[in-house]
Write a structure and sequence with these properties.
single chain; mainly alpha; two-stranded antiparallel sheet; about 60% helix; about 10% strand; LRR_dom_sf
């Protein structure tokens, strides 16, 4: 028989200087914590994989749209613009291939982490199925090591982002032929929200971030997520009266899962569920 009492630190039966707990309670706590941690990793990988797939579609759609615009605009001035059209299409295709390669490389890294997660889940299921408390306790450190190692890796594998591009001066071709040679592929500036930026910059208490009633959208949540990546002191996030859906919630949840704050293991998932149910008004606390 395994002893009724156990210490999660020293594994001894006599405990003079520190607390101990019943093995059944300790085992249940360990099982729940490990399960939550594995679920957190799964959520991060799923969110980032879905985002990668969406980016691939955006790259293809954007490239096809721009190519169509180039071909249509240059029809009336074919002799002058043939060479410029070729250069623009080549640039678009090169940009598409470059973006897709970068995204696919990132996706392969995520798939590697996903495979590692599956292996850990299988080990976890086997241990739980055996109902062997000794084996469950023995897996504490390996699972903790995996979680810590994977969390560090996920911090390194930050959610992939891309800068959209458009064809500058394309519409001017119908009126000014001499502008043809000035057409270039330029980056679209990233989404900005000055009111949000000032609200975050002027917050003196780093443990509380009040973003209520400033008409935030899902795009703004990407800016908030970047703030959460560096603000590890946050314990209270207020977002009353905003237009945030589950997409925006996923941005926040992913940042919180890889942020060493006091939100907790289940906080990110609670945030997603709350905003999915009611996308208008919420406050999130540690």
């Amino acid at each position: 028989m395994y002893p009724d009492e156990i210490c999660g630190d020293c594994q001894k039966l006599t405990h003079k200087d520190h607390k101990f707990e019943l093995i059944t309670g300790y085992a249940k706590s360990l099982e729940e914590k490990t399960g939550n941690n594995l679920q957190g990793v799964q959520s991060c990988l799923t969110y980032r994989s879905n985002r990668v797939d969406q980016m691939v579609a955006e790259v293809e759609e954007e490239s096809q749209t721009n190519q169509s615009k180039v071909t249509k605009a240059m029809t009336s001035l074919r002799q002058l613009i043939d060479e410029q059209e070729r250069k623009l299409l080549e640039s678009l295709r090169k940009n598409e291939l470059g973006d897709k390669k970068r995204i696919e490389d990132y996706k392969q890294l995520l798939q590697g982490e996903q495979q590692g997660l599956i292996e850990q889940i299988l080990k976890f299921v086997v241990v739980c199925h055996d109902k062997n408390l000794r084996k469950l306790l023995d897996t504490k450190q390996p699972f903790n090591d995996y979680i810590n190692r994977t969390n560090t890796r996920l911090i390194e594998l930050k959610p992939l982002s891309r800068i959209k591009q458009h064809l500058h001066s394309l519409d001017a071709l119908t009126d000014l032929e001499n502008q043809i040679r000035n057409i270039t592929l330029q980056e679209i500036p990233e989404h900005q929200n000055e009111e949000l930026r000032q609200r975050m910059a002027n917050t003196t208490d780093r443990s509380t971030l009040n973003l209520s009633s400033i008409h935030l959208t899902n795009l703004d949540m990407e800016l908030v997520a970047k703030e959460l990546e560096i603000n590890c002191a946050l314990t209270k996030l207020q977002m009353f009266t905003n237009q945030i859906s589950d997409i925006g919630a996923q941005h926040l949840a992913d940042a919180l899962r890889t942020n060493t704050n006091q939100i907790g293991d289940t906080g990110p998932q609670q945030l997603v569920e709350a905003l999915t149910t009611n996308p208008v008004s919420h406050s999130f606390h540690a």
